[in-house]
Amino acid sequence: MPAMDRFAPAETSSPASAMTHWIKQIQARYEDRITGHLVLPARLGEYAEIPGSLPAGLHSALAARGIRQLYLHQRQAWDAATEGRHVVIATPTASGKTLCYNLPVMDAVLREQAKALYLFPTKALAQDQLAELLALNQAGSLGVRAATFDGDTPSDVRTAVRLAGDIVVSNPDMLHQGMLPHHTKWARLFESLRYVVIDEVHSYRGIFGSHLANVLRRLKRICAFYGSDPVFILCSATIGNPRQHAEALIGAPVEAITTSGAPQGERHVLLWNPPVVNRELGIRASARSQVTRLARMAIRARLKALVFAPSRLMVEVITKYLKDVFDADPRKPARIHAYRGGYLPLTRRATEQAMRAGCLDGIVSTSALELGVDIGALDVALLCGYPGSIAGCWQRLGRAGRRQQPSLGILVASSQPLDQYVVQHPDFFTSASPEHARIAPDQPLILLDHIRCAAFELPFVAGERFGELDASDYLAVLAEAGILHAEEGRYDWIADSYPAQAVNLRSVADGNFVVIDRTEGKRIVLAEVDYASAALTLYEGAIYMVQSQPFQVEELDWVGRKAYVTRTRADYYTDAIDYTKLKVLARFAGSKAGHGTCYHGEVHVVRHVAGYKKIRYYSHENIGYGPVNLPDQDLHTTSVWWQLSQDVLLAHFADPGAALDAFQGASHAVHTVATLAMMAEGRDLARTIASGQAGSEQGGGVEREASAREIGVRDAWGSAPGSAPEIFAPALHLYDPYPGGMGLSEPLFQRQRELVARARALVEDCTCTHGCPSCVGPVMGEPPEPSRSPKIQALRILDLLAAP
Amino acid sequence: MNALQARLVQLANQAGRVASLATPSDPRSGSFDDSARARLRVLLAQRHHAACKDLPGVAIAPGVQLVETVDTVPLSGAELASGRLAIDPIGFSQLVFLDTETTGLAGGTGTKAFVVGLATLAPPQVRIRQWLLTRMAGEGALLHFVAEALPPDPVLVTYNGKSYDLPLLRTRYRMNRLREPFGDARHLDLLHPVRRRYRGIWPNCRLTTVETQLLGTPRVGDLPGSEAPAAWRRFLATGETDGVRRVLTHNARDLSSLAQVLCALNALD
Q1: For the sheet containing A267-272, what is the strand order?
Q2: Rounded Cα distance, A46 and A280, in Å
Q3: Bridge partner residues of A611 (DSSP)
Q4: I need a surface site. Which of A44, A289, B120, B129 has the fewest CB within 10 A?
């Protein structure tokens, strides 16, 4: 992003009055759809001197680009970096973060022939930043050699980059698979590595972030071998814990700069809920139709608009709708462009260029534009659906904004539970601080993978630490498996393999199943299914859908990780019948939760797929069953759970079945708000209800057997597996569905009161009458009487768990 | 196996790893006390020592065995002496034939050369020296000996050495913080002239094919190169020397073939 607002021909094309007028207009017209209106006042810029010590060439390069002073945060970043302190810059979109690292890096390259490594999460961003670097380089004829190094780099160019690159622009996967395992070829870079720049660090959370932290441990180990100790400069969108997150990633103290010195015009944010079209079923008009309408109105009001659509398909659909209106005449240049992954880089560059030059009136994009791709300034950002996190929301909304003019962002909710919760609780959106990005760098399997890769890169000596960690047990396991050779206190790589190839930075397991189409003797790989969901989707007889085309699984090779399918014309789909058994192995901590208790601890989850149902399309009638014979899936992980005693439950519910139904509804709501609170994807957190014998409440750590059923779109409890337990004390579990856990249960436990309160508000405030997919999950049929509706029942559980 | 190790193995299996780690089978292995471990270590060292005695050549440093042989091969010395080599002028004394046996084909910093073979010419004889790594710790010493053995201003002759053996050795020197001895040495990689001449004529351009087609001496009973890594791992783990002996024979055979191929190609020019 350029530090100065050179690109904005804004003043003429969209006068402040046009925006203000338009906001008033839609407010008046759609009062009932706007659930919240937030105004962020305009902010003046805060500036600082360009450092006097800067080489003359760099000085003139800045001057040539119109930069005569720095924003305060840019100067602060300079001071920290050049004094050798690791720094994270977490300021809003378009605040000139790029210069925060380019300046110290260019300075070090020019004055000391030092080198730098830049890491971006995507290749497109790397290209973008390279262009920015080259422009600065050219403006001052600096002679700095910068190049990208990624999967697309031709092999002859690779050698040149290795030997002569001053600034290497790459991504974490390439560092992990291509650079570190070949570090001797990169010796010149690692010997003189002064700065490591990691942009968009908010996107490195969960599994990906945990992997990256370990890749950085490996990088530091290699740097130490070559005698360098680089300073890390990290940039992040606004998140709740930039310093802590940066420190977790690089394993060292980091200074945080969180206040932007860039000027900012007034900003408006509207929360928009599409009108209800069927109150009983809780069905609303689609977010897509609302967004299309708003975009049309904005462009007609001569405002430049950016639409964020949730999928590539939706990008195409909305683009078509807008083009039908604005680009009807093919002789005129297009006013609307689509922008998404899958387009050729040149096409994307052309769109970015056209937008910067002010030639376009609208862009429809996926999250591809959420990251720091430079498209200049625009007036209105429209979000088709909640992107899953407050931080992500601001990242997208921040795309609208000019230095001097007011701008507007509109979040249009879909009917998804998360979306509905957010727009119906504007206070959540306006008052909540952005989420914390979390990683679990010491997740045992991720650690094992990276210690394996690190041992390939350099032998381990006994007692050597990996990051802060004692690696000896991990090394012993690898030696036992014949992967390392232990000799005289040293562990050397001995296997004939390249371990980084087998470690995917975006997953915990590598046991994916491939789905192979063998219709009419073909052998075509259709898809990949991860190990954890294979048993639920690839059993023999299952209908597996690809692009809504049905295929039937004929043969499942469990050991070989292959499923053979053929095309079918079946008029039904299949749904696995599975049971989850959950056993608490240890309680780490516990506390009172209303009339019940809340714990977090280690659990053993066993999932058994017993069979499957065939369900006819449209009528959804059950037309048959099939058996499934697969090994049970087991999983040791961590969980947080809420529990109510038999006495309390029997005092409030007619029978155990009703109580379990109520737990089911409550778990849906708790899961929704927990996903929201953890900035997690829905699949990163699993839920189940454990019902059964409760062990002694006092004997913390006492093993407790519990059988449970996975909750989902399965049939109602009715007949619980096994006989009715003697002591009835169901528990609502939220657990990490990864072996070893990803560290979510502890922070969830810390926020247990808040989660119950939020889940309660979610259900209570839902506009449905007796429960709907947005609050308590799918509801079958009409309730017998209003007082026994799933909604009321779930609320009862949440009331009992809420602090009085 | 202690508790954490057992847990790691269990989690890896739960995650559906294809190459799953061994499940702890013998619960007694966890109860090994320190003195038992120390005893075992002594026994292993003794076995290793005995195994090394069983190898050809002499131990010249801890972990390094030097095997020297002289091979008489039908070198057409006349052609060489006539100086019609493409990169004239080269004295015999400068020519160094080089071939390595490595712990794998994966490449990267985790692959080692456990045999480095060098051959020099004294027509009609080929003098072959092979340094075999008998323990991991000997690598630095092995590399040092190889560097010492190179003549001044050497001309390297290899088969696919430009993209395989040389980069690998360079990595090994760097990993051991040693100066790599090859510098800007001239390098004849015979794969390239063979490819230029015979690509599309022969089924492939592997060295064994060249031997059959060009020299008319097909190999019999040779250990396939792909089995070399396993042979060396077996030696390290169990002290079994048969495999490693066959690797040494294979490597020596490669070296003398190189010398013959060079002469044969030279004669064709």
Answers
A1: A34-40, A267-272, A407-412, A380-384, A305-308, A362-365, A336-339
A2: 53
A3: A577, A627
A4: A44
The alpha carbons of chain A give a radius of gyration, in whole angstroms, of 28
Cβ contact B108–A187 (<8 Å): no
Nearest to A142 by CA among A61, A80, A33: A61
Do you find a cis peptide bond into B181, omega within 30 degrees of 0?
A: no
Domains and CATH numbers, chain B: 58-268 (3.30.420.10)
Q: Which pair of tokens denotes residue A338?
A: 């689509």
Confidence of residue A424 (pLDDT cuts 50, 70, 90): confident
pLDDT in tens, A291-335: 999 999 999 999 999 999 988 778 888 998 999 999 988 888 999
Contact in structure between A86 and A257 (CB atoms under 8 Å) = no
Burial class (CB in 10 A: 0-12, 13-18, 19+), A11: exposed
Residues of B in contact with A159 (CB under 8 A): none
Cα A544 off chain centre by? 26
Strand ranges in B142-244 using DSSP code E only, listed in sequence order: 155-158, 186-189
How many whole angstroms separate alpha carbon A404 and alpha carbon A401? 9
How much is the ipTM here?
0.85
The verdict on B15 touching A (C-beta cutoff 8 Å) is yes
Among B1, B14, B169, pick the best mutation site for testing chain A contact (most A Cβ within 10 A).
B14
Closest CA relative to residue A290, chosen from A305, A275, A308: A275
| Residue of chain A minimizing CA distance to B107 | A498
What one-letter code names the amino acid at A710?
A: E
Please give the single-letter amino acid code of residue A126.
A
What pLDDT score was predicted for residue B50? 80
Instruction: State how far the alpha carbon of A310 is from the alpha carbons of A57, A287, A318, A412, in Å.
Output: 44, 10, 11, 11
Give the integer Cα–Cα distance in Å for B203 and A102: 54
**Among chain A residues, CA nearest to B17:** A511
Q: Is the pLDDT of residue B177 over 50?
A: yes
Token pair 């969830």: residue: A748
Judged by CB atoms closer than 8 Å, whether chains meet at A498 and B106 is answered as: yes
Q: How confident is the model at residue A185 (pLDDT cuts 50, 70, 90)?
A: very high
* Pairing of β A484-487 and β A490-493: antiparallel
| Of residues A528, A504, A507, the one with CA closest to residue A516 | A528
Spatial contact of B130 and B251, defined as CB atoms under 8 Å apart: yes
Strand extents, DSSP E, A340-400: 362-365, 380-384
* Tokens read off for A483: 């992967």
- How many other C-beta atoms are found inside a 10 Å radius of the C-beta of residue B39? 11
Report d(CA A565, CA A575) in Å as an integer. Answer: 17
Reduced to 3 states (helix: H, G, I; strand: E, B; else coil), residue B2 is coil
At residue B19, the pLDDT reads 55
Average pLDDT, whole number, for chain A? 84
Residues A412 and A273: their CA atoms lie apart, in Å, by 6
- Name residue A169's beta-bridge partners: A118, A148
Main-chain dihedrals φ then ψ at residue A623, nearest 5 degrees: -115, 15
Cβ-nearest to B233 among A459, A494, A531: A494
Smallest CA–CA distance, residue B219 to chain A, in Å, is 26
**Token pair belonging to A628:** 């499934």
**Residue numbers in A near B175 (CB within 8 A):** 184, 458
Any bridge partners for residue A708, and if so which? Answer: A580, A690
Torsion sign across C-alpha atoms A532, A536, A539, A543: negative
Cα A510 to Cα A93, A320, A530, B12, B207: the distances in Å are 35, 39, 8, 10, 37
Which candidate, B191, B178, B163, places its Cα nearest to that of B257? Answer: B191
Interchain proximity A477–B8, CB inside 8 Å: yes
Instruction: Identify the residue among B7, B8, B41, B179 best suited for mutation to test binding to A, counting A beta carbons within 10 A and taking the highest.
Output: B8
Percent of chain A scoring above 70 in pLDDT: 89
- Asked if residues A615 and A572 have their Cβ atoms less than 8 Å apart, the reply is yes
